[in-house]
Structure formats: C-alpha cells, structure tokens
Write a structure and sequence with these properties.
Structural class of chain A: mainly alpha
Number of strands of chain A: 2
Helix content of chain A: over 70%
Order of helices and strands of chain A: HHHHHHHHHHHHHHHEEHHHHH
Largest interface: A-B, 83 and 85 residues
Largest sheet of chain A: 2 strands, antiparallel
Number of helices of chain A: 20
Shape of chain A: globular
Strand content of chain A: under 5%
Oligomer: homodimer
Chain lengths: 730, 730
C-alpha cells in the first residue's frame, strides 16, 4: 500500500535515534566529576525527576478525560475518525518521551560538561553540545517514527471503500488531528515547566542577588537547586516537547494540504506530494547529524568563534538540504517542482532572518540591548520601559518576514502560469514551515546545549571549582542565550506558517462534516451546490467567513483577547509562585542560622516542592483556555466565529510571542553586559536595576512567550477535532 | 434642502457652547488665590501655552503637507471628493480649539479650585467639576456645530445631478472623511501631550520621590512645573482632542451607514436615519447639562460619596436619554424603531459595563489593585509582573462586552423578522457607539475634572497651603483616577464600535472607486455583474476579503504588528525623554546649590523646554506610521490587505489599549493605596517598589494606551480617503 521510498523515513528515524543513543553513551562515558559535583548533580536530577513524575500524572489525568470525550465524539456521535483517540495518546507519549529523554540527558551532562570545561573550553563545548544533540536528534527521530507508524497503520486499516485519492485525504486529515496529543503535552510542558523554572529563578535572584548580594548559583541560596532543576524541566524538557510539536505539526499539515492540492492528480503523484514533507524532514535529520559532527572550536576561542562554530554546522546542514531537496524534487516528477522547491528555500531563509532579528534585538553586541543597559543608569523603571519598548519594536522584522515569506511561498507554489489553485499555494506555505524546521536536529542541539552549559556553570559554582571553569561555562551559557533566541524564533515562525495551513485544513474539514448533515445541497450565492462538489471558496462563501460578518470580527476580538488572557494567566502564575518562593527563601535565611556563613545547609528540597506545587496548580487554567475556547466559540458563533478566533489568536499570539521573547532576552543580556563591566559593573545601582529588568523578563521569555506558539496550534487543532460539533450544532 | 428638525442640532450646539462659556465665566469669577498661588498658576499656564503653540506649529506644517496631497488626490486624480481638503482643516481646527479651550480652562481653574478647597471640599469640587464641564461641553458643542455647518454646506452645494438618495450617500461618505482632520489632530495631541506629561512626571518622580525623598509637587523639584504643565497638555488638551474625535467619528460613521441602510427607502426616511445619530447626540448634550447641574456633595463627604455624586449626575443623564430617544424614535416612523432603540440602549449599557470593569481592575477598593500592592512587598520586579498580568487579564470583560454588544446591536437593528440586511445591522452597531457617547458632555466633565483637581493639589502644595487643603484635593484627585479610567474605557469601547462601522464604510466606498475604473462589469463567482449593482457581499467576494486569502491574513499580521510598533515607539519616546529629564533634574540638584534647603529656585523653564522638545521630536514617527501604513498596504496588497490591516489593528489595538490603561491604573492606585498606609505606608520598601510600578505605568496609561483608539480610527479613515488609490493602482 505504501510506496517503496516511504521506507526511507522509518529507517532514517531509527538511524537518527541510534545516533542519539550513541552520543548519549559517549556523554555518559565522560567522567562525572568530583564527589561534590556528583552530589549536586544528583540533587538536581532527583528534583527534575520528581517534578516530571508529578507533571506526567496530571497530564495523564487530563489525557484520560479528553480521550473519553474523543471516544464519545468518534464512536457515539460519529463526528470524528475512530483512530483519533489512540493516536492522540501516541503523539502525547512520544512528545513526553522526547522531553523526558532530554531532561535525563541534560541532568547527566551538567556535571560532566563542568568537569570537561575544567580541562578546556573545547572539551566543555563538546560535551554540552553533543548532549544538546541527543535532545535534538531524539525529538526528530521520535517524530519521524511516530509519523511512519501511523502512516503505515492507517494505510493498512483505514476505510478502503473510498477511491484512493479521497482515502489519502481522509488519512492525512485524520493524522493531522493526532498533533493534538503532541500540542497538549507541549503546552503542559512549556507552561508547567516555565512556571517552575521562573518561580525558582525569580525567587533565587530577588533574595540572593538583590537582597543578600551573593552571586548566582551560590550554594548558600536555598532556591539554587530549584533554579537548576527549572533549567532542566523548563528549558530542556519543555523545549523538547515544544519543538516536537512544531516539527510534527508542520509535517502533518503539509501532508494534509499536499493530499488536497493533488486530489485530482494521479494517485502516484498525490502520494509523492503527501510524503514530500516527511521525506525532506528525514533528509534534514541526516544532514543535521553531518552538521553536528562538524562543530568544533579551538582553545581560547572567543564567544564569537564559538558562535561561528555552531553557525558553521547549521550552515552546512542548511546548504546541503537546499541542494538535496532540489534533486529530490527534480527526480520526483511533481509539476512545478521549481516553485515547490522555492517555497522550501523561502522557509529556510525566513527562519534565518527571524533568527538574526532576534539576535540583533537581544545580543549585547548591538544597539538595542546596550540601550536598555544604558537606561539602567536611571533606575529600574526606565529599564523596564526601555525593554518593553524594544520588545514591541522587535516584532516589525519578524512580521514583515513572515508576511513576505508567506505571500512568496504561496505564489511560487501556485506556479508561474496556468490555473491558479489556492490549495497549491497553501501547500507551499506549509512546505515553507517544513523547510524552516528541516534542520531542527542541529538547530535544536545548539538550543538545548544552552541550559546544559548553564547547569554546568551552576554545578561548577556550587562545587567550588576554579573561577576559570565558571568563566568558560559562562562563555558557553552567554552563547546559549543567543541560540535560544534563535530557537524560539524558529518555533514561533514555523507556528505562524503551520497555523495558516491548519486554518486551511479546518475549512477543508468543514466539508467532511457537512456530509454528515442531512442535506444534499446548500445554497451558495443563490445557486444550489451539492455538498460533495463544494470548493473551499464555496464553503467560505456559504459560511460568510469574510470580514464584514460580525461573527468573524467578534471571533477576531476573542482570539486576540485569548492570547493576552493566556499570557496574563501564566505571568500572574509566575508572579504568585515567585512571591511564595521569595518568602520561603527569606524565611530560610532568617530561621536557619548560619546559612550565610556556610555553616548550615539550606533546605533545597522545600524550594523544589514549592515550585512543583505551584506549577501543577497554575498550569491547568491556561491550558483549559486553549482547549475550551474553540469549542465554546464554535457552539456560539459557528465556524465563521472559529475562523475569526484562530486568525486573532494567530496574529496577536505571534506578535506577543516575539515581543515577550525579545524583551526578555534584551533584559537578560543587558544585565550580562553590565555584569561584564559596563555602566559600573556588578554591584552598581545600574546592575541592581538591570537585575530587576531581567527578573521581569523571566516569565516573558521563558513562560508566556514560548507557550504562545503552542497555544495557537493547539487551538487550531482542537477546532479541527471538534469541527463536527461546530458544523452540526451551531 | 435640509428638514426643519435639522435646525435643532446647530441651535443645541450654540446653546451648549453658551452654557460652557457661562460655566467658564463663573469659574473666572472665583477668587484666584494668594499671590504665590497666582504666580505658580502663571508658570504653569505659560508653560502650557508655550507647549501648545509649538505643538500647533508642527501640526499646521503636517496639515499643510497632507492637504496638498488631498488637493492632488481630489482635483488632479479625481480619486476623492473636492470638499475633503477643506473639511479636513475645519475638523482639525475644531478639535484643536476644543483642546485649547480645555487647557485654558484647566490652567485658570487650578489655583481657583485649590483656593476654594481651602474653604470646603464641596466648594473645591464645584469649581473643579464645573471647569471640567467647560471642557466636556466645549467638545460636544464644537463637534455638533462643525457637523451642522458641513451638513448644510454640502446639502447646498454638493453635486445635485444625482438622485436624492444617492446624493445623501455621497454627502455622508464625504463627511466621514472629514474625521481625518479630527483624528490627526487628536493623535498629535495625545501622543505629543502624552510624551510631554510622562517625561516630566517620570523625571520628577524618579529623582524627587525615589532618590531625594521629597513629596510630589514639592517646589524644590525642578520638574514640578513641567509635571503640572503636562497634566494640562496631556490629560486635558489631549483628552479633549481625543474625545472630540471619538464623538464626531461615531456620529459621522452612523450617519453614513444610515444613508446606505435606507438607500432604497423614501428620501424622508433616509434623511431621518441620517440625522438620528446627531439628533440623539444633541439631546444627550442637553441632558448632560441637566446632569452637571445636579452634581453636588456635602461637606465631610467620603470619596465614595463624591463618586456617588458624580455617578448620580451621569445616571440621570443616561436614564433620560434612554427615555427621550425612545420617544424620538417612536415618533420618527422609522421601521424597526424598537430594534434601533435597542442598539442605542446596548451601547449605553456596554459603556457602563466597560467603565465598571475598568473601575474594578484599577480601584483600590477591589482585589486586583490590592494584589499588586501586596506584590510590592517582594520588590519592584513582582509589582511589575503583577501589574502586567492583571492588565492582560483585564481585557477579558471589555472584549466579551464589546463582542456581545456588537452582535446584539447588529441583530436587534436588523429587526426580528423579514429580510435580513447586514447594513441595517451595522447601522445598529454604529448607533450603539453613538449611544455610548451620547452623554459625553457629563462623562467628560467627570473625566477632565481629575487633572484639574490634580493641578489644584500641586498648586496647594507649592504655595504651602494648609495640609488639610492638600488632603481635600487629594480626595478629589483619587476620584479623578477612577473617572479617568471610565473615560478611557468609553473612548476605546466606542472606538471598537466606530471602527467596525468604518470598515463597513470602507467596503462600501470601494464601490464608489470602482466606478472610476474603466470597466462596466466585474466577474463575481463566475457571473458578470454591473458595477453599479454590486452589493457589499459582492464586493467582498470579488476582492476575496475572506480569511483564506493570504493577503487578508497578512494584512491582519501587519495590523497587529502596527499596534505594537506604535506602542513601542511611544513608550520608547517616553523612556528616552524621561531619561533626559532625570539627568537634567539630577544636574540641577547637583549644580544649583541650595535647592534642597529652599534657598535657591530651580530652573523650571528648562525642564518644560526639555519636555516640549522631546514631545515634538518624538510624536512624528508614530503618527507617520498611522498615516502611511494604509497607503502602503493598499498599494502592495490591495483592498483585501487593507481590510485585514484594519481588522488586525482594531482587535489588537483594542486589547492593548485596555491592557495598558488598566495595568497603569492598577499600579497608580496600588501606590496610592500604600501611601494611604497599607504595606508599611509612605517611605517603606514596598512604597518604593510601588512608585517604580507607577512610573512604568505612566507611559502605558497616559501615552501609548489612550492613543491607540485614535490610531485605529485614523488608520480606518486614511484607508477610506485613499480608497481610490488602492482600487486603482493595486
């Protein structure tokens, strides 16, 4: 049933996972450091495991509830495909597994990277980066494997009474809804992990750095271990689940649009269009491994050299994927191969531009962050105002890039002559997302290695290693901040493109649900049209999904508001949790005599518990907002309202995400810039002001901001899954 | 040409202006206070006049440039009506005049209110509130007068070759574009005034309160006079121009939609539909005067009593307008009078709910602001995080109110049976905006009186009056903060409704421009339709203004981004200007010996100059963004892109505006709550943290936030004015 070349994908997936395991073993073979280092690493790992265990228990409970709903929907009301409840679990488990393996790797790697850095910078980089690669490759490998598994299963067992082309449309649209499991898992991981890590971080910084004047990661600070646990559960496990979701979402959306765009071509051609996205992703995975193997740096390398080393690996991978995807497309006999290849290229370039723009706004090397640092001289208020202003301005380039990229990808994929097919254009847009994420294996390695280096630094500090070691891990960490901004840029950029594709899929899925209505014809612009013959534009006209329809406009308002509500809820959650943490840290300093003199050990575990408890309690409501809003709007305002909702959430979520990530990044690096000696350096008033800015930025850049891309997609996918309800009952 | 009942409007306008003059004279007749008080008031007035003079010079230059463009557009390219350039000036002048008169009143009233407050609270309230009434009534009177003037002129001179009903459509759509002058003037006043006042305020607070520990409005602080000038140019002149714009925009939009909705009815009925909005506004103006005369309070009144006194006046006005508008509609013979009346009622209620929601989120009496105050105990970072979180959450109720209100107004105005006409629904939505603003005369009086009381307090402080006086003016001022939040809620709520109406007018204006194309037919959904016979839905289909069109979606992204860009630009401008001010104030304390000991007078004028210069320099770019973006998007993405742009700017601008106003209000009142004794009171660390929160909130609530409603409408109106360009050249 599946063509021979399909097997390339699962084989690649297994190979990629094998390489990930190989890197993991290499890392484990490194010496784990001194006794003290191992002890601290164990504290952190235990905290992280305890947190993840708790988190997964909550997630499982939610999954059980939702799958009951899905079972009802599919088996009782026949409003959804019967495979959906199972695949929902499978994607959720894979995404969770990616996060878990990432966290395991990161917590094992921290002390090893610190120990290696005590030998040389290059050794430290190698351990941290290879461990990051484990995370990146695991995500990519699992996503490709899960895709292959379900593609096979559905091709074997799905309803075979339909003609082949229609059957493939049903299969790809069913698979699209699988992404719901991945998105939901990712949302919990990002929001929960984000609340955990930032409550700990804010609590640790506010009391430790500002009030007590002790350095970051000082073992006297009771919240230090919780802070390091947070780096693992938020920045590694959360990011792993997040990018798993982005990666598989992009592939699934492109496959579904490929099936629709080539619905009237031959089955062979349609199959090629469906498998093209996953094929290119698999190629990108192999090329990522090549890129990872290239990254190397000399001893005494400056941070610029380090960045170049990483950049070099990414560039080689990206360049090769451009060449090879052209060859593949050329050989595939797909019509307008040049245009489709163009869409992939546009995606890669757009990702690069968004990453560079993030770097410009958040790196100490450029004017914006320096300007924020300067404003710290007039106190915390001007630092905050400056960072917010710059964060808002920083949305201009990414928005213009996405706008230009989307329109170009749309038009080149439509082809330069002949009949214009808007689904072909949307297929191009979704392929741009696939292109943007094709080398995720390596870009994520450069992203995940940041928190590992950060933890290595924490471990070095707490174990009392030589200052030189801390300097080396700091160099690695500073770099990690920049690469993290790039990773977030990719996540949100690809989310914009994927969400557009999902909106199109939503409108296309409406037709499927209309077939369940007990009508044969609908009246569109005065003409009766059989439901089977409806085009997407007919559906748009029938439901008046245009901007004069007040339901669409009101959906737009609600969607915009929801993005803000979601941010407000998660920021407030961090504020509340951090305030509890601050009280606890103050209490320990007050009540446990001798902490400051290193004569007593603070109660680390209590701080970990506070963060865990807060995260679990606070992550539920924002997640419910994402799940319930499309259902409620669908019931009250119908499909027109839902499309408006998705449009509003998408556009404002995108801009908010960029704003939050870059404001947070600018504050963080302005602080680091001052710590490196500018504006009076550490301990100056300017530094204190900058620390406050950084603290405000923490929930921006690590809780609310990076969750928005998941929110957008989760809302789209929930809409898709419940489309039957909106069509039937509204 | 005009019906007899039309004359009610200009007569009312003259009467309202006469009452305003009467109140002004009454205020002038009050004693102006001691010599010191008069001296300080003179400083402030001179500063404000100098600023306004400078501001109007810049505005005139911009107006000249734009009117040259309009002249070309109208007379050379025939893409716009030939009356537009003139009316553009007339509206701009009236709006500027409203601001100027308001500023004159406020600066004369401050010392008088302070002096009256030294006698009794009630006397202080009377002077401040009556002066606020001058501002409110001037705005309302001038708007009605300008409307009447142009309605007469156009009825006398506009192209009489058309059939009467079509002619009225052209006249009302032409008048709609007049609002451009008002909007542009308002944008400059809000942004420029906002930058001025907040640069001075932030500068004065940061050095005075935080660093030197001297109270607000202490004459030793060099930025004190500039701060008081700012209250006048930002909060009075800026607000005056802003609400002038909202008020006339709502009336004009409703008139245009009334003309379209009743295009196929008799000319008499159409005329009634056109004049209904302005008629109801005129009735509301008279009832506002009634309400103003009712407001009174006892000596020893608590702030709750004060709020009740003001609320009582507003309630009487609102209740009467409900009754009387029902009578008018009943007598008018307009079909579905009940539905249309319903839309007006919905608008009034929606305005009330939005106002109450603002009050809930920003008043010390409720949980959110108290929660922000509590978070000040853990330092400035948690205060900021808390305020931002609460600001974001606070958008939920206003959005749901606008959504429900819009949909209800739309459906009740469409009528409960028979043929559904979507323009009737939109007419209802625009009447809801008119209803919401119908009692603007009194709501604005309660709004404008806040800065007057604030200035009175400043004057009392600087003149060394008794502490009791300051307490009384503080009670008045605290109240002003709450009423100001209500006023901002009205401005943004009515903007959402008006902007929807403007979007509909835009689509309707497309048809007019299409008549200029050298085509007779266009193909819509495969059928050739003569341009003259196109319905709005045909236009929507022809230009594919639906959410599957990537141009619409990309417009949505750009619009959302522009709202953030605009905020970022104006917040950054405040940040930069405030930093300059901080340096200057610090310099004066350092270099002018004896300021702190009251032995030397600081150089007040220099601080005023710094704010003036900064405001003039910084207000241009945000304003250009508003003017140029619809033109550029229209050229590149056509009308589909422009509609997307407006939708994005509207939805995200609305939510951002609420977020900023309420976050800022919550910080301000959390600080006041602490100053009143909570969390350790004045001088505690919690207080210092709250002052930082308040400072961050200043540009939020007084610069960027209140400008957004103007931005939204200005973009809509510019789109309307240049619709010919988009249709012809894209």
């Amino acid at each position: 049933m599946v063509p021979w070349y399909f097997w390339f994908v699962p084989l690649t997936a297994l190979f990629v996972l094998y390489v990930a395991m190989y890197f993991f073993k290499m890392m484990k073979a490194e010496p784990a450091g001194t006794k003290r280092m191992i002890e601290i690493a164990t504290y952190v790992r235990r905290g992280a495991l305890a947190y993840l265990k708790q988190q997964y228990l909550v997630v499982i409970a939610v999954f059980v509830l939702i799958s009951l709903f899905l079972v009802l929907l599919a088996y009782k009301f026949h409003l959804q495909n019967r495979w959906v409840p199972f695949a929902f679990w499978s994607a959720g488990i894979c995404s969770g597994l990616a996060g878990f393996i990432g966290m395991q790797t990161a917590t094992q790697a921290a002390s090893r990277a610190a120990f290696a850095a005590s030998k040389s910078l290059n050794a430290g980089l190698r351990v941290a980066f290879r461990s990051g690669a484990v995370v990146g490759l695991t995500v990519v490998g699992l996503a490709l494997l899960d895709y292959s598994f379900w593609f096979l299963i559905l091709n074997l067992f799905a309803d075979s009474s339909l003609p082949q082309n229609d059957r493939m449309i049903v299969i790809t649209e069913t698979m699209l809804t699988f992404a719901m499991g991945a998105s939901l898992q990712a949302l919990f991981a990002r929001v929960g992990g984000g609340i955990f890590t930032k409550a700990a971080d804010v609590g640790a910084d506010l009391v430790g750095k500002v009030e007590k004047g002790i350095p970051e990661d000082d073992p006297r600070n009771p919240a230090t271990i919780a802070d390091n646990v947070g780096d693992n559960v938020g920045d590694v496990a959360g990011m792993g689940a997040d990018l798993y979701e982005s990666y598989s979402g992009a592939i699934l959306a492109a496959a579904a649009l490929g099936a629709s765009a080539f619905a009237r071509s031959s089955s062979i051609l349609q199959m090629k269009a469906i498998l093209m996205p996953v094929f290119i992703s698999a190629l990108g995975a192999i090329l990522s491994i090549v890129g990872i193997l290239i990254v190397k740096t000399k001893e005494n390398a400056s941070s610029r050299d380090l960045l170049c080393a990483l950049g070099c690996g990414i560039k080689v991978s990206s360049f090769c994927i451009l060449l090879i995807s052209w060859v593949v497309l050329y050989l595939s006999d797909i019509p307008n191969a040049l245009g489709i290849w163009g869409a992939i290229v546009i995606g890669l370039i757009a990702g690069e531009i968004i990453g560079k723009a993030s770097e410009y706004y958040t790196s100490q090397a450029y004017a914006p962050t320096r300007c924020v640092a300067e404003q710290s001289q007039t106190g915390p208020a001007t630092v905050i105002i400056g960072g917010i202003g710059i964060g808002m301005l920083s949305s201009v380039v990414p928005v213009l890039t996405i706008v230009t990229g989307t329109l170009l990808a749309f038009f080149v994929a439509q082809g330069f002559s002949g009949d214009k097919n808007s689904i072909m254009g949307l297929y191009g847009v979704s392929l741009a997302a696939v292109g943007m994420l094709s080398t995720l294996g390596i870009t994520m390695a450069t992203d995940a290695y940041g928190p590992i280096a950060d933890n290595a630094g924490g471990n070095a500090e707490m174990s009392g290693l030589d200052e030189e070691v801390r300097k080396r891990t700091d160099a690695l960490d500073a770099l990690g901040n920049t690469t993290a901004a790039t990773g977030k840029g990719l996540a949100i950029g690809s989310a914009a493109l994927t969400a557009l594709a999902l909106m199109a899929s939503y409108i296309s899925a409406i037709k499927g649900s209309m077939l369940n209505l007990e009508k044969e014809f609908v009246i569109v612009n005065g003409n009766p049209i059989p439901i089977e013959a409806l085009t997407l534009v007919d559906i748009v006209n029938y439901y008046q999904i245009h901007l004069l329809n007040p339901k669409v406009l009101m959906g737009l308002f609600i969607g915009t508001m929801l993005a803000f509500l979601f941010c407000g809820l998660s920021i407030n959650a961090v504020g509340r949790a951090a305030a509890t943490m601050v009280e606890e840290v103050r209490r320990q300093f007050r009540e446990i005599a001798g902490i400051m003199e290193n004569k007593a050990i603070p109660d680390y575990a209590r701080c970990v518990k506070i963060s865990t408890f807060a995260a679990q309690k606070e992550m539920l409501i924002p997640s419910l907002v994402a799940i319930l809003s499309p259902i409620i709007v669908g019931l009250l305002l119908g499909v027109a309202g839902v499309v408006g909702l998705l449009g509003g959430a998408l556009s404002s979520g995108f801009v908010l995400a960029i704003f939050m990530a870059n404001a947070g990044g600018a504050w963080d690096n302005a602080k680091k810039y001052i710590e490196a000696g500018a504006m009076g350096g550490k301990g100056s008033d300017a530094h204190k002001a900058a620390v406050i800015g950084d603290t405000v930025g923490d929930p921006f850049k690590d809780t609310a901001g990076p969750s928005l891309n998941i929110l957008i997609k989760l809302m789209s996918i929930v809409s898709l899954v419940v489309v039957g309800i909106s069509v039937t009952f509204s």
